[in-house]
Amino acid sequence: MKSLSDSEILLKAAMNRIAARITEKVINSAQEFNQIAEELPQKLQNEWSRFKEEVIQESERLEKKTNASKEKSAKEQLIKEDFIQIQIDNLRSKVIDINKDIEEKN
User: Fold this and answer.
1) How far apart are CA 69 and CA 100, in angstroms?
2) Alpha-carbon distance 94 to 98, whole Å?
3) Predicted confidence band at 1 (pLDDT cuts at 50, 70, 90)?
4) Which DSSP string do the residues of 14-76 spell out, in sequence order?
5) What is the pLDDT of residues 82-98, one digit of tens each?
6) What is the pLDDT of residue 70?
7) Which SS3 state, helix, strand or coil, does residue 1 take?
8) pLDDT (tens digit, 9 = 90+) per residue, 45-101?
9) Spatial distance between the Cα atoms of 14 and 9, rounded to a whole number of angstroms
10) Within 13 Å and on the Cβ side, how many CA atoms surround 17?
């Protein structure tokens, strides 16, 4: 069997170490991927639950905002109706006064 030169030994050692490191990286990556794959369904479920809760909270916020706006509109409508009623009452009073003046002149 032929004896290896120093440079051949060095090259073979480098190749062996590169192969060992690549193998180690592949094994670690496979383990990490396996762990991620195992955790993924739970993470997705948690994220989905959080999203649904956010949607519920947002809908409640919008509903409160809409209700507050409706209440404000209702109050404004009542104020307008009161103002209109006051104007009608004032006009009636003026008509009554004018009728009295006309009756007094006749």
Assistant:
1) 46
2) 6
3) low
4) HHHHHHHHHHHHHHHHHHHHHHHHHHHHHHHHHHHHHHHHHHHHHHHHHHHHHHHHHHHHHHH
5) 888 999 999 999 989 88
6) 79
7) coil
8) 999 999 999 999 999 999 988 888 878 888 888 888 888 899 999 999 998 988 888
9) 9
10) 6
Q: What is the CA radius of gyration of the chain?
A: 44
Do the Cβ atoms of 12 and 20 come closer than 8 Å?
Answer: no
DSSP 106: -
Q: Kindly report the CA angle at 64 between 58 and 69, in degrees rounded to 5?
A: 125
> Which pair of tokens denotes residue 24?
């180690």
Which tokens go with 7?
Answer: 């440079």
Token look-up 């209702």 returns 74
Answer positive or negative: Cα dihedral of 62, 65, 67, 69: negative
